[in-house]
Predict the structure.
Amino acid sequence: MSENPTGDALPEYAERVLDVAELIPPGRVMTYGDIAEWLGDGGPRQVGRVMALYGGAVPWWRVVRADGALLPGHELRALNHYREENTPLREAPGSADSHVPRLDMGRARWDGVAAGGAGGPGPDGGGGAHT
């Protein structure tokens, strides 16, 4: 998760993904697949790639895996953000190898409807803030 590593202008798809990530309210999350579906373009892997390459400039911890597991290698940083934002979490079961909680996807997942007033900018809106 770093800013644009080359310093060049971001690809258009990356800008669109990052614009959506910035719309996610504190305490809420969207999955990689949610963002791809909201954009009507790409898929979870493409969104994940954008976040891995360029996501450091946006609230990356709000873009998550569908199973609610915290981003490997960034669990503690993400957990600090989730706690600051009161993002709903589920404690890890006692049988889990790790005692790191997961996101409570049923309560934390955001559908993007409240973005920017009447449904947000949608797939054709947003843009330009990350160049």
